[in-house]
Amino acid sequence: RARARRDDDEDDDAPERGGTKTTTTTTLAALARSDEDVPPNFDLLVVFALGLLRALLRKMSGEKGVGGKGAAVEPRRDAEDANEDAPTTLASPLGPQREKILRGIVPLAVRALSSPHAAIPPLAVRCLAQLSTMRLSTFDSSTGALARRIMALLKDCPRADAQLSQDCLKLLNNLLKRHAAFTPTDAQFRFIVRFAFSDLEETHREEQRSTVFSLMRAVLARRPLLPEIYDTMNVVSGLVVRANADETRRSCAGALVQFLLDYPLGERRLRTHLESLAANFEYVHAAGRVNALRCARDVVARFPKDVVDANAVFLFVPLVARLGADEDAECRAAAGEALRVLLKRTAGGGVGEKLLDLATRWCAVGGGGAAVGDDAERLRRAAMQTLGIAVAASPSHASRAVAAARHSIVSALAEHDPAVAHREEDDDDVAVNWQTCYRALLLVEKAHALCPEALEGDECDDGDEDASEDSVWRASQALLSHRHQWVQHAAARVIGRYLAVNGAAIAAALARRRDGSHSDDAAEYAYPVNLETIARACVAVLEQGVGARAVDVDEKLAEQTVKNLTFAAVVLLQTRRPIAENDDENDEEDEEALEADDDEDDENDLNAAAQTAAAKEKKKKTTTTTEDDAVDAKPPLPWLFRRVGKVGAGGIGASRAAALRWTAALAASLGEEGFDRHPTIAPPLLLPSVLCADDAVVGVAPEHRAIAEETLEVLRGAMRGELFSRAHAATRARIASRRDARRRAKALDAVVDPERAARARIAKAAKRTAARKRKVQERRAGKGSSGSAKKRAREL
Q1: Residue 203: exposure state from Cβ atoms within 10 A (0-12, 13-18, ≥19)
Q2: Which of 220, 246, 714, 785 has the maximal Cβ count within 10 Å?
Q3: Residue 216, exposed/middle/buried by CB under 10 A (0-12, 13-18, 19+)?
Q4: Neighbour-count burial for 156-173, b at 16+ CB within 10 Å, e otherwise
Q5: What's this model's pTM, rounded to 2 decimal places?
Q6: Residue-wise pLDDT tens digits, 18-41
């Protein structure tokens, strides 16, 4: 103790020679004298001075640039250093006067750590912890004594989570991070590791957890080569997934990555840590798996490239397995992100080509209608998803792998073609292994967007004509009618991309066919997709929201369907001849009427001849239709307007909204010229909008009524006023005639079957009575025991 007192007295000389000190500095200096020089109860004054100093420091820490990582902006020289060769320091945001005072307080606060009074060391530690964030140069001259006194205080602490020990750990963390001259010995580092990191699994408060792991990162940054460090990191490797708190798992992952990057590790020890990390990908709890996958992503992103290449295949296989087999969406997303980083780091080299070759070969496994849960089918899906990740990470390098896997992609799409016979594994509610074709569609979408050359060419590299570019789009078109909405949406996006690139050429080919400069077969088979097939599939998607078994259609699916259907309908209408020129065009009803003309031996020859004559007369009238009654003729593509009209008039949710929006989009695309060419489409286009906008029609949602009104405005602006007036009048007349027909049919039923009509009237009266009783009960319940509803309202 006498030696310490002499050392302290020597340390006092420097600040005392520096000039006048404040009362706080004088008080702390008096503490360093002998016990005979200190008056009785002087420790109370020291406690007060340290408390005042701490309050001032806390107030100063809120100033801009003071504490933390606040940096100065311009160099300066100390006032005492008149020599021009004096070292240049950064200007402190504290200001010269305050910085000088605080530099004088540091050694005094360090000596206060040795006070025998129990209340003084904790306050001195807290003051030093705040002073250590201000980058004061006097800390560099007190490192040895400061380290010894901090260790002495930690040894006196019973537990690492005690308040004094936490304050000491904060001080050590600040000193290790901000003062390079503070270099504890190996023995002191060993004590810190054993004291602070011995029980990392114990549940601490968040502040204590943050202090411990921040100190761990600071210790690892100093790289002390101690066996205790390696042993501690083995425990940390397990806590990456096993720790209860999410913050603890994240802190352990960060410390482990820093250790693997900074510390010298042999190949065997590094592989051991990586094996442990890969084994944690299958941890029982999803939160642990997510953290392990994120840790692997950080390792791959920050490791040197040669180390990543050496361990790429070892990490690639379990990551792909997690991508295809994990049931948790967050785990799959983390595995995909780790794969993206790995494929990006290895792209362009032999290792990257090896990984892509593995994914290409895995795409060919499975298939053939494998049962649910088949490992080969899951591996196939994961491989296609991996190729999609590779395309997003490095399109130029993944293009060749996608081209090689084109046959497998087409096979996956063709296996789920709805036109193929019903699969034995499917039932009425579930389409088995729909994820396979869904992943294949996503891969086609990414490849077409980022590396379209991978889908170009007439044949694959192996010469298989079934894997040609046309077959990819043809198979994607077939999946527009798949039973699962996710598959429908992916197929709709793929076809939308194809139409965006090739739509103009398809329209030009159909226009040449209309003009007679192109044969029908050549125009039909020049492209892999058929616009009428696309239109029928799009209408079928919207019809899912109509009828007794109607389901809610996804809004994004409905939006993409409207886009595809609008393009297909506009091109089909623009490339058809006008009604006056289209003498050979027959709709479905005309074909049924003319079927009798093909059978001369039918026993009902007279009836057949009458039907044939009526159909021919109808066709003649259609051909000679004038402009005034053109709206009464049948429109081109009657199936399209009839089916979409039913969706707009009686659909639910996004289906009805999509039908109304399609009506507006088609009208805006055709314009006056299109309606002049095909005036017969005006009434069927107006019908759903007029019905939904009519207040007399019940069961229309307010948002659908608003869309219908907007659609009517678009229609009014897209066609000539006279045509709109005639079409609107014809539509209103049609609606009124149908309502009258229903009333007449109802009255006729009452006459033909009075018993049934009486039962209907009784049922209707029973419903009205039940509704009346329900309203009375609701009113009585509203009154309660405290009186009438009006009385309660007045009280409120």
Answers
A1: exposed
A2: 220
A3: buried
A4: ebeebbeebbbbbbbbbb
A5: 0.75
A6: 444 455 555 555 554 445 566 777
